[in-house]
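Summary of Year 1 activities. Much of the first year was spent building the evaluation harness for sequence design. The harness presents a backbone, in tokenized form, and records the residue chosen at every position. We chose the following record to illustrate the format because it has been used consistently in internal testing since the harness was completed.
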């Protein structure tokens, strides 16, 4: 079942109830509002950790970390395949020791997970974006990069595109990572478990900033991350339905994310990814021979 989150403005009811002179006005207004209508936080998400650490400011949802608690929200539904976009403005000023995460995850010991983790830093020093992919409960696939902008100054769009061929991590629509389906090489690919969408902010000063050397300075709390423009366009999976049934249905849902053109990056996106990797990547598990003396199987096949 499709799940277009930009919820339909009901044109037909507007038309039916309106005199013709009002129709034009109503149409104009509905176009205006529909075009701007990103699904509201409440429709898609709910706080799952520390609801009292949330504040709502117009379009934006703020989550704060202080020395009492972090905070987190999760999607109300689970999904298999599709695309999630969230605009995030990260903690301004001193964010050392803090981690803000945006991720998709299934449940259970053999869960799959696609992670963006934003590692804070001292004032003026760059945030690091760490991505990771868990398949069947195993992660250890970290990549790290610096961004080409200051993510604390403005909102930027962070996205996960997931279909049967690939998982793509995007920043302002620029791909920063691709996890390709290599099942034909005997490498498992996550496509059998429904995933929720999550975000959280917490204290991780034991490892996050400069390897854990820089600790959270609580005199600078609260640390606030802001979110807006929530969009989930995917195959929705009722929690009451078995994963295997959802998998069958979502594999044949005919969603736009399964178009052949989305089975791999296009030429422009491939160039963007090469640029990101050449200029902004600071760590790739695939080249960490100290940690992985034999190169992880999927790395040998990754062209990137
Ligand atoms: C923080 O800044 C330092 C110095 O610029 C940099 O080496 C480091 O990668 C940055 N990020 C983190 C998360 O430590």
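For this record, the design step produced the sequence shown next.
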């Amino acid at each position: 079942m499709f799940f277009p989150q930009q919820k339909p403005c009901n044109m037909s009811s507007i038309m039916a109830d309106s005199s013709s002179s009002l129709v034009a006005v109503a149409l104009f207004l509905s176009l205006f509002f529909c075009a701007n209508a990103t699904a509201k936080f409440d429709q898609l998400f709910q706080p799952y950790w520390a609801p009292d650490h949330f504040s709502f400011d117009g379009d934006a949802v703020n989550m704060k970390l202080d020395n009492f608690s972090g905070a987190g929200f999760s999607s109300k539904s689970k999904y298999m395949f599709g695309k999630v976009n969230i605009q995030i403005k990260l903690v301004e000023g001193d964010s050392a020791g803090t981690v803000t995460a945006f991720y998709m995850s299934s449940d259970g010991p053999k869960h799959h997970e696609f992670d963006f983790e934003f590692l804070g830093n001292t004032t003026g020093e760059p945030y690091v974006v760490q991505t990771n992919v868990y398949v069947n409960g195993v992660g250890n696939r970290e990549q790290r990069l610096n961004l080409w902008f200051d993510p604390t100054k403005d909102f930027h769009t962070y996205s996960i595109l997931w279909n049967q061929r690939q998982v793509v991590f995007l920043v302002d629509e620029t791909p920063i990572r691709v996890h390709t389906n290599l099942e034909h090489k005997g490498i498992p690919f996550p496509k059998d478990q429904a995933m929720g969408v999550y975000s959280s902010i917490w204290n991780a000063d034991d490892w996050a900033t400069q390897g854990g050397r820089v600790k959270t300075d609580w005199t600078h709390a609260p640390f606030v991350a802001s979110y807006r423009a929530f969009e989930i366009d995917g195959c929705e999976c009722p929690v009451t339905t078995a994963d295997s049934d959802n998998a069958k249905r979502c594999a044949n849902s005919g969603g736009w994310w399964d178009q052949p053109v989305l089975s791999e990056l296009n030429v422009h996106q491939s160039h963007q990814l090469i640029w990101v990797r050449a200029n902004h990547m600071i760590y790739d598990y695939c080249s960490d021979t100290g940690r992985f003396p034999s190169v992880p199987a999927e790395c040998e096949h990754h062209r990137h």
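The CA atoms of residues 82 and 199 lie 18 Å apart. Quantitative recovery figures across the full test set are reported in Table 2.
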